[in-house]
């Protein structure tokens, strides 16, 4: 009897062990989730689900976000720390680059196969890299609700063929800025179109404003121009195109359109305006950053290369107390202007490592869409959201105007085939006029010839 009882007890024990094993196996079956923490197996404990494999990526960033406490890159480090709270397995190495030296540094890195994994930049460079096959497609990280919430105009600037190579995040129309305080001091605020909802104004009205500054504020330079380097080329393009009622490119982006008589006359006026002290002298040797610094010092009344994004980024860089206002470029006859959009977004260089590409996508998704940092990042750029559903981020009159001015946005030339080469011909053409070597029309015709050849060559290479 005792033997029979002992045998029954043994059978019960075996059954309990089998049931426990079955339950354990079922809990780890596909489709079931576990909330238990991975256990340390170094001392011979039971095997557990392995933690995500650590990945290290490098992010190169222009100063796209406002400096925090006056320190460039401090905000980005804060963002990375917040990202690591959610993704401790992904290490992000940040390297800040400048708008002056950054483009060349990127070119060298690409040529030496040492490009960063992630870049926050604009279509001018990103699309060119995409056309050269240097970037990883991002389509698998863009759900349909996001794609339909962003206007087609922004997707056109973010895609090469049917592949998305840049994740669009922030935008703002490029336009002018005026030192409003200068006009208040000289009692000429009425010369600015600030009382008009759309702020649209004419070339004659603009010239009257410049003349008032020259006569009543002799220590202030009325306006600026620059032609030393490629940076800021969108400001000079739109300035001349609007003063001359022209477009930089044809609507289908197949050829240059700015070489008109009126645009040539506008360029001639700029050269003469230097001599008349309405535009800064020596502009052929000045870069966009040079004249921007003068504006921030309060020494210039008008900047021709501005946006809501730059307004925010410059807020901590001002060296003088003044209030600026955003204005569209004046047009020859006071008609609606054509503004190029600033578009900022993130791209991934395909460095041949799938794990890094996947990690970079996770990081981009956090920057753009995190429930806390998505909005916070937008505001820190000073830009507007590319999404139709995200508006009213700022309680500020100039940002409200910037949103209104989106109605004037036209397709930018940055998506044209051969754009990277086109822009290399632009500033030499401007310099030739500023230095008295060619008329405006001659320079624009010469530019158009070289640029059209670049477009044709690029199209042929893409076939």
TrEMBL record:
Keyword list, A-Z = Cell membrane, Lipoprotein, Membrane, Palmitate, Signal, Sugar transport, Transport
Compositional bias annotation for Polar residues? 28-46
User: How far does the signal peptide extend, from start to end residue?
Assistant: 1-29
State the residue spans of region: Disordered: 28-50
Q: Does the keyword Lipoprotein apply?
A: yes
Q: Which domain of life is it from?
A: Bacteria
**Official protein name in the record:** Sugar transporter sugar binding lipoprotein
- Give the source species: Paenibacillus glycanilyticus
């Amino acid at each position: 009897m005792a033997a029979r009882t002992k045998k029954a007890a043994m059978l019960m024990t075996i059954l309990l062990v089998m049931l426990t094993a079955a339950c354990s196996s079922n809990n780890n079956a596909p489709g079931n989730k576990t909330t238990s923490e991975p256990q340390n197996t170094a001392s011979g404990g039971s095997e557990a689900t392995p933690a995500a494999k650590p990945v290290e990526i490098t992010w190169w960033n222009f100063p796209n976000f406002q400096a925090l406490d006056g320190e460039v890159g401090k905000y980005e480090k804060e963002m990375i720390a917040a990202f690591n709270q959610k993704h401790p397995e992904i290490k992000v190495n940040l390297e800040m680059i400048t708008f002056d030296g950054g483009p060349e540094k990127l070119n060298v890195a690409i040529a030496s196969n040492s490009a960063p994994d992630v870049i926050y930049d604009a279509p001018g460079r990103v699309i060119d890299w995409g056309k050269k096959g240097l970037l990883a497609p991002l389509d698998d990280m863009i759900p349909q609700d996001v794609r339909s919430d962003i206007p087609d105009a922004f997707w056109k600037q973010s895609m090469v063929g049917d592949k998305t190579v840049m994740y669009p995040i922030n935008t703002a129309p490029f336009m002018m800025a005026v030192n409003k305080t200068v006009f208040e001091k000289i009692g000429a605020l009425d010369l600015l179109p600030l009382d008009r909802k759309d702020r649209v104004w004419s070339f004659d009205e603009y010239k009257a404003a410049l003349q008032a500054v020259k006569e009543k504020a002799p220590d202030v330079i009325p306006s600026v121009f620059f032609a030393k380097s490629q940076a800021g080329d969108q400001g000079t393009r739109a300035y001349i195109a609007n003063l001359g009622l022209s477009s930089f490119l044809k609507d289908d982006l197949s050829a240059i359109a700015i070489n008109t008589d009126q645009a040539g006359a506008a360029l001639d006026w700029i050269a003469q305006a230097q001599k008349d002290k309405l535009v800064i002298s020596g502009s052929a040797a000045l870069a966009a950053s040079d004249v921007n610094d003068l504006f921030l010092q309060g020494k210039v009344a008008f900047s021709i290369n501005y946006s809501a994004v730059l307004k925010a980024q410059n807020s901590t860089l001002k060296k003088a107390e003044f209030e600026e206002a955003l204005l569209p470029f004046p047009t020859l006859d006071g008609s609606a202007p054509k503004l190029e959009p600033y578009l900022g977004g993130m791209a991934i260089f395909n460095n041949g490592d799938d794990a890094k590409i996947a990690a970079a996508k996770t990081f981009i998704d956090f920057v753009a869409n995190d429930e806390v940092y998505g909005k916070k990042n937008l505001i820190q750029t000073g830009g507007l959201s590319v999404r139709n559903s995200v508006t009213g981020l700022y309680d500020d009159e100039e940002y409200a105007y910037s949103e209104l001015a989106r109605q004037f946005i036209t397709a930018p030339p940055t998506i044209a085939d051969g754009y990277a080469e086109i822009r290399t011909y632009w500033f030499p053409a401007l310099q030739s006029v500023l230095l008295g070597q060619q008329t405006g029309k001659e320079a624009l015709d010469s530019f158009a010839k070289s640029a059209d050849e670049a477009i044709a060559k690029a199209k042929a290479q893409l076939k």
